[in-house]
């Protein structure tokens, strides 16, 4: 398991030389024994958040104390008024592991019986990676310049793939869905309430720390945007699990905050995803049946992630980009 991180946020930019390794102004110790935790300290691009990354996974069910001392200064040399310390206790299991996609991870788009695209030459669908179909073939993919007949969509890498490689990817997609559906540890039920309105652990509505969130039926994002807050942990993972469908209304956004990565966001669906127009979507969609992204208005929805369907897939002026590693 990858070590988790501990972060301290400052009200103004700090002097990197006073905080980053090998400086000793930000330390972590096991509270009871006083033993120091080996690790490195880094600052974000704005120099406002220091992150301590342990060299090894912290012991479970153990209290630790983090300390930022007055050796930490701003660029003018002004130090903190006093040392700042806080304690935290690790759980028996720390966070969610990423869902293993296997060879399905090599594709930005997977479909089964058919993949259809509707877009214009002025605003084409763009798949900036590989597109695969199984059990269908290239003749079941329509609306792309690489397909027959040619359409207005564009596949920028790898063209249309079919055959044994895609068959294996579809098998791996099925295994990923089964593994996700079996997860229950640290599960947070969210019911059918709008994801933009739900409050998690006393936080702000629509702001989600890393974790496993589930609904026995559908998930929806309609009332407003939602935010995924990694809290400085670049390895943070989110799994949103729906017994049936995911519905995202027009113009909604999924915002990544404090080191969150689209590659570590997974939407696992008992049926399908329906994503509206002009949506900024983040994460990997794993649908047990079909997906429909965009609308006939076709003004353009953007996905940073993967769109993986067991069966059909419909696209309307969509741009799909690979998630950053």
Task: Please characterize this protein's 3D structure.
This protein has 325 residues and is mainly beta. It has 2 domains: 6-89, Immunoglobulin-like (Sandwich), CATH 2.60.40.1220; 102-321, no CATH class. Helices cover 6% and strands 35% of the residues. It has one helix spanning 164-182; strands at 6-9, 26-30, 39-43, 49-54, 63-68, 84-89, 109-111, 115-118, 126-127, 131-133, 141-142, 154-155, 160-161, 187-189, 207-208, 211-215, 219-221, 226-229, 238-242, 246-248, 254-257, 265-269, 273-275, 280-287, 291-293, 301-309, 313-316, 318-321. The strands form 5 sheets. Strands 7, 9, 10, 12, 13, 14, 16, 19, 22, 24, 26 and 28 form a 12-stranded parallel sheet that branches. A 7-stranded parallel sheet has the order 11-8-27-25-23-20-17, with no helix packed on it. The chain has a 3-stranded antiparallel sheet with strand order 1-4-3, with no helix packed on it. The longest helix has 19 residues, at 164-182. The chain is elongated and about 70 Å long.
**Main beta sheet:** 12 strands, parallel
> pLDDT average, as an integer?
91
Order of helices and strands: EEEEEEEEEEEEEHEEEEEEEEEEEEEEE
Radius of gyration: 22 Å
Number of domains: 2
- How would you describe the shape? elongated
Relative strand content: 35-45%
Total beta strands: 28
Uncertain ranges: none
Class by SSE composition: mainly beta
Termini, distance in Å?
A: 17 Å
Supply the number of helical segments: 1
Helix content: under 10%
